[in-house]
Each structure stands twice: as C-alpha cells, then as structure tokens.
C-alpha cells in the first residue's frame, strides 16, 4: 500500500466509486468529494498528495477551485477532468494552475499513469550539459538540480508539478535557447500545443522573477524559444 493519498472530486457518484476502487486497487489511499465545497472541507482535514478534479460541477467549478487553491499556495499536482477536450479548454486549465488535463471519457489506466508521473515529479529528459552545477542561483533563489527544489531567504518556493518540470528542462541546458517545440515535447505537451509552454513560462516567471514583465533569468528569444540565464 502506498502512502500517497489522492483526492478525487466529481459530481458523478458512479465515476467517483469507479476511480476510488481503481486507484485503491493500485495502491493509493483515496478520498472523494462531490463538489468544490465538500473538497474544501476534506482539504481542511487532510493533505493529499494529488488532486483529480472535474471541471464542470454545480456551484464552484473546477477551474475556479484550482485558481483559488493555487492562490492559497497549494502546490500539489492537480489533474483536471472534463468532457470539454478542445485545446483552448486545456489551455484554460493550465492558466488556472492545473498540471494536467484529461478529457472524458478516458481510460482509468491513462489517469493512473499520468498521476504516477506527476507524483514522481519527473524532470523530463533532455541532454544535460557537463557544466551544469548542482546548485543554480537565480538572484536570491537557489535551485537544487538533483532534488528539483527551489528555495530562497524565506524557505522553499512552492512550485507546481508543471512549473518544476519546466524549470528542470531549462536547467538541463542553461544559456541554451530551447524551442517551444522541444520544450513541449519534453513536457509531453505536444497534444496541447506550444501555447501551453507559454502559459507555463508565464507562471514560472511569477515564481523566480522580481518583475515577471522584465525577466532577469528566463528570457524570450523572439522566433526561437526560451533560455534560462542563471546568476545573482
């Protein structure tokens, strides 16, 4: 039995039962909630390791709840479920702060694999240059390359899974311009498109830049992509 705890939120009781049984059979502890209000109540009592959240629910919807949880500093992986599977809808989910987006209907096995990937906080594979140090400095922040941990004078900086993965990709080749296509492929966002990379970059800049509109470290190279330039 895994120690990892998943909170599943959906207004469909049948789907809740199915996911609770399936995830439990695969070693996870599972809590459920039928709407955002019930989910907030659960979150007052437990600290899950990941959240699976339906977008379309009565009352507060999944996008609003995701936005609110991110503003409150909750950094656990959030995977959105919805029948609206168009790329624009997925971008909206990422902009709200979600780490992943799965369209209904879906195979439970795919949900399980995506959850495992986010729970591992896997840094996607790109060739790493030899000169990358163990610790990269971004002004007052430090990024521990091996641990994937960003910290500053006030302690750990809470990154979402998507932000952490993006920083890991950029850190693998500091000073090298990486195309949106290459980053999307490394982050397994090919299906959503390169616009999703721009959304993640915007979110990451809010974490590492004093002024995200005038970035010191994460630069846009017009027509080519993005480059991370560490420094004090």
Spell out the key features of this protein.
about 20% strand, Arc Repressor Mutant, subunit A, 4-stranded antiparallel β-sheet, globular, Rossmann fold, about 230 residues, alpha/beta
What does this structure look like?
The chain is of the alpha/beta class and 232 residues long. The chain has 2 domains: 5-120, 3-Layer(aba) Sandwich (Rossmann fold); 135-228, Winged helix-like DNA-binding domain superfamily/Winged helix DNA-binding domain (Arc Repressor Mutant, subunit A, Orthogonal Bundle), CATH 1.10.10.10. The chain contains 8 helices and 11 strands. The chain has a 5-stranded parallel sheet, with helices on both faces. Strands 6-7-8-9 form a 4-stranded antiparallel sheet, with no helix packed on it. A hairpin with a 2-residue loop joins strand 6 and strand 7 (141-144). Helix 3 (62-71) packs parallel to helix 4. The longest helix has 14 residues, at 195-208. It starts with a strand and ends with a strand. The relative contact order is 0.11. Residues 122-130 have low confidence and may be disordered. Residues 133-230 form the OmpR/PhoB-type domain.
Topology:
Elements lengths: L4 E5 L3 H13 L3 E5 L2 H10 L4 E5 L7 H10 L6 E5 L4 H10 L3 E4 L4 H13 L14 E4 L2 E4 L4 E4 L2 E2 L4 H11 L8 H7 L8 H14 L9 E4 L3 E4 L4
Helix pairs in contact: 3-4, 4-8, 6-8
């Amino acid at each position: 039995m895994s120690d990892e705890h998943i909170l599943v939120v959906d207004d469909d009781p049948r789907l809740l039962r199915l996911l609770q049984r399936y995830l439990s059979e695969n070693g996870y502890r599972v809590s459920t909630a039928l709407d955002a209000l019930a989910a907030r109540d659960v979150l007052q009592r437990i600290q899950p390791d990941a959240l699976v959240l339906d977008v379309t629910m009565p009352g507060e919807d999944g996008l609003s709840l995701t936005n609110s949880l991110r503003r409150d500093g909750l950094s656990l992986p959030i995977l959105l479920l919805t029948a609206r599977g168009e790329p624009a809808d997925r971008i909206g989910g990422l902009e709200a702060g979600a780490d992943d987006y799965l369209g209904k209907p879906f195979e439970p096995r795919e949900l399980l694999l995506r959850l495992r990937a986010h729970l591992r906080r896997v840094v996607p594979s790109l060739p790493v240059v030899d000169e990358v140090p163990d610790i990269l400095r971004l002004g007052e922040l430090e990024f521990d390359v091996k641990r994937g941990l960003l910290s500053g004078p006030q302690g750990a900086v809470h990154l979402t899974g998507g932000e952490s993965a993006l920083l890991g990709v950029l850190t693998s080749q500091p000073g090298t311009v990486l195309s949106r296509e290459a980053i999307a492929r490394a982050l397994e966002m090919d299906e959503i498109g390169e616009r999703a990379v721009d959304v993640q970059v915007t979110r990451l800049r809010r974490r590492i830049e004093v002024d995200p509109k005038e970035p010191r470290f994460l630069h846009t190279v017009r027509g080519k992509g993005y480059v991370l330039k560490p420094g004090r």
